[in-house]
Amino acid sequence: MTAAARRIQNFRAAAALALFAVASNLVAITAAAPGTSPTITATAKQDIKPTADTEPFPIAVQASPALVVILSKGGNKSVRKVKISGTTIPLGQRPVTIVIKSDDLPPMTKTLVPGEDGTFSFTEFAPLEDGDYDITATAPDGRGEATTKLIAIELEDLEDKVDATLAEAETAAEDGVAEADKKIADQAESPAKQEAKKKIAAARNALKEISAKRPALRDAMRGLIGAIAANGAMAEVARPGIDRLSNGLASAEAETKRVKDLTSRMSGADVGCHKLAVVTEVFKTISALLNIKRQILDTAIGLAKDVTSDAAANIAKAKGAGPTFAFATGQVVKNLPELNSASKLSGNAYGIMADVGAYVTDQVFSAYCEQFTGPVSAVMSADFYWPTKEGPTLWWSYYYSVTGRLVLYYPKSAKGESIALKGRIEGYAHGFHTWENSLNVQFPKLMAGAIQHKRDWPPLEIGGGAAQIASQGASPLSAYVEGSAGGLAAPNSFLINVDGVLEKDSLSIVVGSAVSDFKAKHRVGVLILSPLTGGLGPQLTWYELPFLGAHHLFTRGTNDQAAKLKLVTEGKVMTAEGTVTNKVEKPKAKAQYKITLKACNPGC
Length: 604
Hints:
single chain, alpha+beta, eight-stranded antiparallel β-barrel, 20 strands, 38% helix
């Protein structure tokens, strides 16, 4: 087994896998004369299989939508079909096997032959019973597996799902604001603090108004969903809106978890500027959550309008709907004012939270804290060697770049010749490049006379330009955002804690722990045609070549020591900048690092 193959892990890449696009253009594997190349026949292509040292094939699977609302039973047109899709390595005509299990129903099995790009999908599954459905996809090698889950609920239960999801979101928002209020109260008295407390009081009142409206909103949703559930024509018209509603609920649940996690982190934050930094992010996240709630309510309003439209009435008439349809639409119209009112309240609270977050950032933080901000760029390159008779031989090398932002802050009250700072480096890795000759260097005898057809899949990335905008913002004075939660969802993002020391003519930075780091991998698939395999036919193997992350780059690049930047003061602006380089040379690996840092107060 190659060193690369030993590092095989579950596959998550969204990049397409098209290894057999190469194989399909070959002709004929037969017994080859010495010195000639083996060829491949269409029949033999069916016998392609993984090499003995290949670990389970990578595979990914997902279900869309993940939350299914059952409008009716029995297989009629109102039943929602789910798209199950994924990616794997294709293996001739060998299929992916998908098994869907539920506690109350017999399992459903489906086999699919992946396309040449490795993708597979089908839309034949429609859950007819509520409950959890476990979906397992097995790769064409019969060993690699991936799982996902979908949840199905009856339409009659959707009102409870909406109420529970929105109630949990409101509670999370209330808890977050209450905890943030405590953190602001801990600050020394100032006009900024007093104004912030007024704004937080307004935010808490806005949440109380939303909470007070919850019973009326629950009744309105019950009326809307009940009317749809009671009439087949309405159910058919409502399907697109129901799908949008279920997607909104999934988004609200994810955002609610973010608010809870940030509130927990805020409660444990240390005193001073770091505390205020987390408070800022909490308000911004609560604002995002309330915006999702408003979108859910707007979706419900749109759904109500859909089922009471002239088009819906025409569909109902064509299906022979009678007086009950008119009564149901009347009930939906009655509930519209409450839905509109709840949407406006959520929109109002969303705006208030955004305003509080901006005020804490722009006024409260600046009233108590100073901060250095500025751009960061870095490059890492690495070469790996394998011991051979001819000496160490290069078998793998890579390089990549980093674009990011440095933020350091400290209390305005800090005094002395040496002032401690705290902050972060955040950004994105991009420009990944890999060269490798793994099989030939590590197994020269096995590869003698063999033909290798390779396909490479580099890591996904957002690119250097996008990384610069995402990490450094449109303005050098753009606000500090603790955690940059939105940015951390992008490919190959990272967030690393740093400490600093501000002195008369220098700013020193010490790299701390990684809050998050990227785990990029270059993937290689190889179709091997070798006379040594005899009647076994062509063989398929794959392996991953991992890149070391940003934390490694910054710690090794600084040689695990403080990076000292020259500090220059011109007028009211302090600028610290410098470049750090390092080389590491070992028998089996060599690496070079270059890090450029710049930070200015108030910003650059």
